Amino acid sequence: MGYFQKGRCMRREPGKGSMRYYSTQYWNRGKRNRNEDSLCIEQVQTRRGRVLLAMVCDGIGGLAGGEIASGYVAEEVLKWFYEDGMKAMRFGNMECVAQGLKKRLEQICDSLFLYGKERGIRLGTTASILFLWEHRFFLFHIGDSRIYRIRFGCRQLTKDQINAEGALLQAVGASGQCIPQIQFGRIVAGDRFLICSDGFYRKQKGHNLCRMFGRKASDFLGTKKEKNWEKILKESAEALLRKGETDNISAVFICCLKGGRTHGSRL
Q1: Is residue 220 part of a domain?
Q2: Helices (H), 21-167
Q3: What is the pTM of this model?
């Protein structure tokens, strides 16, 4: 089975102007015999602001041990987050943290490649990782899972690393070296992010994602309303299964809020 961990959160009331993040997820094996997707959401309040790490890893089904590859990457990135990422935040900036994760991903890729080589198998996984720190973010992306940002419409931030036939050009562990897409950006209150495996997006278009998540964030937030995000993810996945989707379906949804409230009218 794949690895899943719903994020823990060390809570403290956010200061004025600080950012907080609401997150939820959907994880289903679909019509496959096993779920080879892994996902993780971790959120921590630090002295330097609130931090959120989220990722979706889609184990390659055509190779051996897809769930092993995706689970290993999720676990190792999670270890980096608490062992090294937190230290880098205390003494550096966003670029320093990103550099540390890049180095760790290179080590993870090498370790997974050697694991397969020693056993005479090939295994690999996609990895789409999003790191939010107050008003900035960076992402690391390998493969064809996706990260979208919903602000004034829905924008795909990642590029699918596939060839004309749709085959993966890069995957963690399937080759000795990975060259991730790395991107930095700013966050404003009301921004929403969606991280998902190809089973979630393959049979629906970007405009459909806009309809699902493109309304004002404040419409879905509150004591009872926040459950609507989970409902939207579930209903969307169930619709995909009715359309004939057979793959594992995984998605992480994040909404960014400033001091617990959104601002502006067009979010």
Answers
A1: yes
A2: 66-80, 86-91, 94-119
A3: 0.88
Q: Which domain holds residue 179?
A: 4-258
As a whole number of angstroms, the distance between CA 194 and CA 251 comes to: 7
User: Does residue 265 sit within a domain?
Assistant: no
CATH number assigned to the domain comprising residue 156: 3.60.40.10
Q: Which residues in 66-82 are b (16+ Cβ under 10 Å) and which e?
A: bbbbbbbbbbbbbebbe
DSSP secondary-structure letter at 261? B
Closest residue by Cα to residue 66 from 203, 248, 235, 253: 248
Token representation of residue 43:
């959120």
pLDDT digits (tens, 9 = 90+) for 32-88: 888 999 999 999 988 888 999 999 999 987 777 889 999 999 999 999 999 999 999
| Model pLDDT, residue 187 | 94
pLDDT (tens digit, 9 = 90+) per residue, 129-156? 999 998 999 999 999 999 999 988 889 9
Residue 267 lies in a domain: no
C-alpha 265/C-alpha 220 separation (Å) is: 14
Number of domains, the chain:
1
Residue 264 lies in a domain: no
- Give the H or E element holding residue 209: helix 206-213
